[in-house]
Known about the structure:
Strands 1-22-21-17-16-11-10 form a 7-stranded antiparallel beta sheet. By secondary structure, the protein is of the alpha+beta class. Helix 6 (157-170) packs antiparallel against helix 10 (214-226). Strand 3 and strand 4 form a beta hairpin. It contains 20 helices and 23 strands. It is globular, with a radius of gyration of 22 Å.
Amino acid sequence: xxxxxxxxxxxxxHFASGQTxxxxxxxxxxxxxxxxxxxERMIVAANPLAARAGEEIMATGGSAxxxxxxxxxxxxVVEPQSSGIGGGAFALVHSSSGLTSWDAxxxxxxxxxxxxxxxxxxxxxxxxxxxxxxxIGVPGLLRLMETLHERHGKLPWQDxxxxxxxxxxxxxxxxxxxxxxxxxxxxxLAEFEAADxxxxxxxxxxxxxxxxxxxxxKTLEDIxxxxxxxxxxxxxxxxxxxxxxxxxxxxxxxLDDLKFYEVIExxxxxxxxxxxxxxxxxxxxxxxxxxxxxxxxxDQFELDELEVDDPMLWHLFASASRLAYADRAYYLAxxxxxxxxxxxxxxxxxxxxxxxxxxxFKAQEDKAVAGxxxxxxxxxxxxxxxxxxxxxxxxxxxxxEGLAISLTASIETAFGSGRMxxxxxxxxxxxxxxFRPWSTDGLLIANAPAPQxxxxxxxxxxIVYLDEKPIVIIGSPGGSRIPEYVxxxxxxxxxxxxxxxxxxxxxxVSHRNSGSVTVEPDMPTHVVEGLEALGYKVNTKQMTSGLxxxxxxxxxxxxxxxxxxxxGLATGI
Length: 573
């Protein structure tokens, strides 16, 4: 079991010491490059073809940004269910000039209304909303690629597209993961032109089938030649708008919505944890605040007294998550539209007061209510319980000059809206808004839809610092559980000194203020029984995170690991 594997690493040399016991020649997991140790550069991505494309770009003189762009484009070809140019992203970029944080989240069209997903006074069913044109936000990924390339790119823009163009034109072998998801979602995809690509003759592609996507290849060639403007103001913009505005339930996406889209540089949100400084993405992402609250709450307890497989540790984790997700539901939204008390949510005194609500020896079965942090708005909100669904990817990249990137990209639900333009899938990110704009007692929900507003996200690209130097680059897909996945892995690495793969392998524990705790099927029996003895109702579910992690030791070694729950790869030299 994975749990037994990571317990073997509890005697692993201290994380910050620069020493490592990883044997790159060892059998098993090391040989499939789930974990790898290098000295100069590294990329960890959700698909081996994307990771290798990024590594080849750096090998020919490209920067970490160049590698990230090439890998993202390949992911659009080989992992279309999770990300692509029809979606958006958040990115943290550490360079010699410091840390920057980039918001390329999709925006609602100017024609969106608070009742975007309401019909006859009731919210739409999720799949009906997700498959509608109303769900499609203005994609931001290409503008982000362009922005980062202008600042940190070394190779020509056109060169970065060539690996993806070749795979789209000449084909690639469908992976078992993609084949499985096509089978699961085949009925939904059959409603759209995506069926022509992924369901030839009405049947989902099987693993090993060579998939060619000539229309996507042509689109990528045109963007490589004409730049991102071809997407936002050129011929392709008309195709995107047409796809979003088709029946049934057409959206209101316009050419002006695309033309005036902007990537926003926002302040990174940082907080302490033990001796470390952890930085992440602020609103409209809930990543940094939710992860930050979980970790800062746990910092109020003596975690060193507990073993990594102690039920008490995971009781404290669930309790911290319960409180953090209560605040997330109440306060987190697009900070350009509502005042989000980020500083208050991470205020040490506020965290201390919230920690006092945790009963160390007993589960709290009732749902937590949001706290009263400093800096909060005078407005009264209602909690938003809309759940983000997983259709996301994450890349962690660092080059020989120390340029480091943590980037999470998404099209929301698997295969997004199911609608296509130019051979790529369009997102359904607007379903991350609350479907109900008001609560039953008439209070506005902070994450309600509005024209040109960005929906709340759970994406949590994160960089950990020690002595002002990055030591961990991390992130994951996984919908609203992403902050829990990232927090858990950071606890494993920063408290219990686990290496990236061992941290990613840890069986997940999730609470999200749901009234019960969820664990993965391979959680040891004594942990489950211990949680039940504390009063938890324990549910069992596979939680398919996709953590991709790079650890940088004091000695400058790079240790990379990719979550075994997916098909990712760590590679470099």
